[in-house]
Write a structure and sequence with these properties.
single chain; alpha/beta; 9 helices; about 25% strand
Length: about 280
């Protein structure tokens, strides 16, 4: 099952539309959910607070109905259900993720603070969900027919490539596997030297080999670029249909829920972003 969080925002509706397309490709059910405070979900009681709770529940049902209408118009064959979740949206979606194969959210919600690059719910869910997460931004009018995968050789790389190859195969798209490498120093990164790049090219080929055998129909572009991974991935993903990264890469500090590159992509990815867990 794919779970998508909606809150009445345009980003939430875009997330529902994207998730419906994904559910159709995967031939899996879709569940639309809207979170609200625990007390508002309770139907018992009387008085002013009970009236407010009823008003909030009706508002939540209206939000769900709008998202369901979009899903049924765009993907009428997708099995869809709706539900109200009690609690903070982040906590509610994280808990719900234990029963999902994918959670989809918009990059900004109704409560977004002006000037922030991504909403707190999107950031929290991307970092803590128990399954893979997709953050949806509006696609360009004419997206490039590519899925872009960030490959760094870390423990998450195998799952990143599993996800990316599957998406490329389902969508009939080319997979661009991007490996950024650099030699850090105090003032920035050192220029490439010697056979360093050739070693990185071999690393990428090794990581791709088994996946190419399992998905022979997927066209793959191998791209090894000397530069900072954030800048390299932003450029590579511009105009793509999807960018796929791991939740944690090399050099991740103990205690961080997202690696520095994946966290930067949550804020700066130029297209829908899939954050793949270990």
């Amino acid at each position: 099952m794919i779970i998508v969080g909606v809150d009445g925002s345009r980003a939430g509706l875009e997330a529902a539309g994207w998730a419906a397309g994904e559910a159709a490709l995967r031939e899996t059910p879709l569940r639309l959910v809207h979170a609200m405070p625990d007390w508002a979900c309770k139907e018992e009681g009387s008085g002013r607070l009970a009236e407010v709770a009823r008003w909030m529940r009706e508002g939540g049902k209206t939000v769900l109905a709008a998202a369901e209408d979009r899903v049924r118009r765009e993907r009428p064959k997708v099995a869809v259900e709706t539900g109200l979740l009690p609690g903070d949206p982040r906590a509610a979606l994280i808990e719900a993720s234990g029963d999902a194969e994918l959670v989809v959210v918009g990059d900004h919600g109704m409560g977004g603070v002006r000037g922030l690059l991504v909403g707190s719910v999107a950031l929290g869910v991307a970092g803590h969900a128990e399954c893979d997460v997709v953050l949806v931004r509006e696609l360009p009018v004419s997206p490039r027919d590519e899925v872009v995968a960030g490959v760094d050789g870390s423990a998450t790389t195998g799952r990143v490539l599993d996800f990316a190859f599957r998406e490329a195969e389902l969508r009939g798209l080319t997979l661009r596997a991007v490996h950024a490498w650099s030699l850090p120093q105090a003032g920035g990164i050192l220029p490439p030297a010697g056979d360093g790049e050739q070693d990185e090219v071999l690393l990428l080929k090794e990581r791709l080999a088994a996946h190419r055998e399992r998905h022979p129909g997927v066209q793959v572009i191998e791209e090894v670029v000397h530069g900072h991974p954030v800048a390299v991935l932003r450029e590579a993903a511009a105009g793509a249909e999807l960018l796929v990264v791991g939740s944690r890469g090399y050099g991740t500090l103990k205690g961080m829920v997202l690696g520095s590159v994946s966290q930067a992509m949550v804020h700066h990815a130029p297209c829908p972003l899939a954050v793949v867990k270990r």
